[in-house]
């Protein structure tokens, strides 16, 4: 890790620590941003060409982006569904014998 990146991470951690304890609204905004970036990066690794901003529009507003395939849109939505399924399964404390 280069020094500039390390300093950036340390600065962001200090800023986050300064805001503690975090309110529910801040936690929800952080969670939304985390899942947006997770979805974008996961799909980009697989060749999806939607930008971070376009991914955000698809996720939060349900907007269809021109000149992008339906497959790319569904990859975004399916990633969210997968995350939601895992979260709901954990909340319900369901245990799958095969996992």
UniProtKB/TrEMBL annotation:
InterPro entries: Fido-like_dom_sf (IPR036597), Fido_containing (IPR040198)
Taxonomy, superkingdom: Bacteria
Site note Important for autoinhibition of adenylyltransferase activity, residues: 46
PANTHER family: FIDO DOMAIN-CONTAINING PROTEIN, FIDO DOMAIN-CONTAINING PROTEIN DDB_G0283145
The name this protein goes by in its record: Toxin-antitoxin system, toxin component, Fic domain protein
Species: Leptospira interrogans serovar Lora str. TE 1992
């Amino acid at each position: 890790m280069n020094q500039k990146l390390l300093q950036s991470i340390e600065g962001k951690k200090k800023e986050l620590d300064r805001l503690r304890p975090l309110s529910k609204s801040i936690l929800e905004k952080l969670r939304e941003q985390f899942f947006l970036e997770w979805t974008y990066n996961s799909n980009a690794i697989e060749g999806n060409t939607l930008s971070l901003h376009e991914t955000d529009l698809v996720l939060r507003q349900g907007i269809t982006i021109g000149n992008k395939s339906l497959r790319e849109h569904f990859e975004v939505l399916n990633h969210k569904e997968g995350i939601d399924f895992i979260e709901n399964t954990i909340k319900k404390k369901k245990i799958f014998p095969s996992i």
